[in-house]
């Protein structure tokens, strides 16, 4: 069964075509600058060079058609015709409280995703555009949606309610939702496999550390808490996002810096985080080299980041009554041995210990804890596309007996 996995951002489309009989990625691609000048499709058939197609892409419908044309192109395509696509799996950012699992697209589901756009105004509308474009292009192919928030719908009220008047939750759904759900779910499952069991057997803390970062407490297979909240701005200090701050800073900024709501949103989402602290970059590679050259603010940005992750690990160990494994994933978590070491330094009292030699790993599944450690530590590259493709296959087999 071949699954086309689609991830539509506001001005981008990422896709993969996966043969789910072997889990082999047949091709992947990225369209950027949709609706802007200079849009480009970078299409990579597995094991071959990337083909750059420079063409104006006015909207997502055009982009989806372009991606499918690339997949079926006689020179660099990987399938003969669109009919070889058995199902499409879409990433949707926000499923609110309505979607606790992946679902087959129906008119009612489309309405539900549109209703959740209030919670994710930048993300759900382009996600919806991608789904509609695929439905128009491939009307007889089943479409499945996988939500970033769904995995965290198992959180109990004490984890997801804020200390705000309850009416706000009832009226507008203001609560913690959490994000990166597919990633947390995937790496927790992989870690459980590497320990010889299933997620129901373990208490796992998953650290998704990239440009956007979040930590989740996965207790016996269920997410019971996570650091992102009502929006992906909460929790850890990130590349450009502030993470949790004292809410009283917002009226202070409004008064002192004369900012309105839109400016505050921009300030906290795009000008804060390690970029704001260092004044240099949101990319940890830049910060690590600047810190090595003696740049103090880059060093303090790295220290703050690591300290926050460490605090969450402590908090979630308490929340789960112990921890069996800690997992590092995403750009920074998978690649930066020094950040992993810094985060875990001082956590030995939990029974952890990093093996310096094993920790040199980059971008592949590996246990990096010492042989004596009671708590296992893993590096596991995330694979959200594979989770989406798996859910798509499972739903198609279960519901429409594909
Ligand atoms: P992601 O959002 O998962 O794609 O992660 C991207 C971020 O990971 C980048 O902005 C960097 O901060 C970080 N990153 C990627 N590779 C490395 C590396 N080799 N060393 C340190 N940080 C890295």
The end-to-end span amounts to 9 Å
- The total beta strand count reads 14
Q: Find the structural class using helix and strand composition.
A: alpha/beta
Q: Give the strand order, joined by hyphens, for the main sheet.
A: 5-4-3-2-1-6-8-7
Order of helices and strands: EEEEEHEEHHEHHHEEEHHHHHEHHEEH
How would you describe the shape?
globular
Percentage of residues in helical conformation: 25-40%
Describe this structure in words.
The protein is α/β, with parallel strands linked by helices and 402 residues long. Helix content is 37%, strand content 19%. It is built from 14 helices and 14 strands. The chain has helices spanning 60-72, 107-115, 124-137, 157-160, 166-172, 181-194, 249-256, 261-270, 273-278, 284-292, 296-320, 330-335, 337-344, 384-399; strands at residues 2-8, 13-19, 24-32, 40-45, 51-54, 87-92, 103-104, 143-147, 203-209, 213-219, 222-226, 325-329, 366-367, 376-379. It has an eight-stranded mixed β-sheet. It has a six-stranded mixed β-sheet with strand order 11-10-9-12-14-13, with helices on both faces. Strand 13 and strand 14 (376-379) form a beta hairpin. Helix 10 (284-292) crosses helix 11 and helix 11 packs across helix 13. 45% of the residues are buried. The mean pLDDT is 96. The structure holds adenosine monophosphate. Adenosine monophosphate (AMP) binds at residues 210-211, 239, 283-285, 288, 330-332, 335-336.
């Amino acid at each position: 069964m071949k699954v086309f996995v689609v991830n539509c951002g506001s001005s981008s489309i990422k896709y993969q075509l996966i043969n789910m009989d072997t889990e082999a990625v047949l091709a992947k691609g990225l369209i950027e600058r949709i609706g802007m000048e200079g849009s480009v499709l970078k299409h990579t058939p597995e094991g071959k060079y990337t083909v750059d197609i420079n063409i104006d892409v006015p909207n997502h419908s055009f982009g989806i058609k372009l991606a499918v044309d690339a997949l079926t192109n006689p020179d660099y395509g990987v399938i003969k015709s669109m009919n070889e696509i058995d199902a499409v799996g879409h990433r949707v950012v926000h499923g609110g409280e309505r979607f606790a699992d992946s679902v087959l697209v129906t008119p009612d589901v489309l309405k539900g995703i549109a209703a959740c756009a209030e919670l994710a105004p930048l993300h759900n509308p382009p996600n919806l555009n991608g789904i509609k474009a695929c439905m128009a292009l491939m009307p007889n192919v089943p479409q499945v949606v996988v939500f970033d928030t769904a995995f965290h719908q198992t959180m109990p009220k004490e984890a997801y309610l804020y200390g705000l008047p309850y009416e706000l939750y009832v009226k507008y759904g203001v609560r913690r939702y959490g994000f990166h759900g597919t990633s947390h779910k995937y790496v927790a499952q992989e870690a459980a496999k590497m320990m010889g069991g299933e997620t129901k057997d373990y208490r796992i803390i998953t650290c998704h550390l990239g440009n956007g970062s979040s930590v989740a407490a996965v207790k016996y297979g269920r997410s019971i808490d996570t650091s992102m909240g009502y929006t992906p701005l909460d929790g850890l200090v990130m590349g450009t996002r502030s993470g949790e701050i004292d809410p009283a800073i917002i009226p202070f900024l409004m008064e002192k810096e004369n900012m309105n709501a839109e400016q505050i949103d921009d300030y906290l989402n795009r000008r804060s985080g390690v970029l704001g602290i260092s004044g240099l970059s949101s990319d940890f590679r830049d910060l690590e080299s600047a810190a090595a050259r003696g740049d103090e603010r880059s060093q303090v940005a790295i220290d703050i980041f690591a300290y926050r992750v460490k605090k969450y690990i402590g908090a979630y160990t308490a929340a789960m009554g112990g921890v069996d494994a800690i997992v590092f994933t995403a750009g920074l978590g998978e690649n930066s041995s020094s950040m992993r070491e810094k985060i875990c330094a001082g956590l030995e009292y939990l029974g952890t210990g990093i093996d310096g030699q094993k920790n040199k790993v980059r971008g592949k599944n590996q246990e990096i804890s010492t042989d004596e450690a009671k708590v296992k530590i893993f590096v596991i590259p995330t694979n959200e596309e594979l989770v989406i493709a798996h859910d798509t296959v499972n739903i198609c087999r279960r519901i429409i007996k594909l």
